[in-house]
């Protein structure tokens, strides 16, 4: 079973998170967004700020990232499989091993959950 909490977890507990760039109107004006997926021991909100800085410094992209999905448990072990499965959503110009995707954050979370659940069977 995957636990979805994000509130009660301690900072030491690794979690899988998805953050989405809301500066281009997602979710109201666009069905897709620049998304970052990853596993972290930090609070996902802290990783959002770090990822915004990395986007600005490395790719000259201004973004306003917001955490849209957080889960703990077995999903943290599925990160690479989730990244591999969603590779077609890799934004142009990003390296193959980047954890950035241009997609619907809801669809990314759905796929991540399905992959994690499938691994438990």
Structure description:
This protein is of the alpha+beta class and 121 residues long. It has one domain. Helix content is 32%, strand content 21%. It has three helices and four strands. Strands 3-1-2-4 form a four-stranded antiparallel beta sheet. The longest helix is centred in the middle third of the chain and has 16 residues. It is globular and about 40 Å long.
**How are strands sequenced across the largest beta sheet?**
3-1-2-4
Number of strands: 4
> What is the 3D shape?
globular
- Put simply, the count of helices is 3
Tally of structural domains: 1
Using only CA atoms, what is the Rg? 14 Å
* Order of SSEs: EEHEHEH
Helix content: 25-40%
Most strands sheet: 4 strands, antiparallel
Low-confidence stretches: 1-9
Terminus-to-terminus distance: 10 Å
Helix and strand composition category? alpha+beta
Strand content: 15-25%
- Overall average pLDDT: 89
Jot down its keywords:
alpha+beta
Secondary structure blueprint with pairings:
Blueprint (H helix, E strand, L loop, with lengths): L14 E7 L11 E8 L3 H16 L5 E7 L7 H7 L14 E4 L1 H16 L1
Antiparallel strand pairs: 1-2, 1-3, 2-4
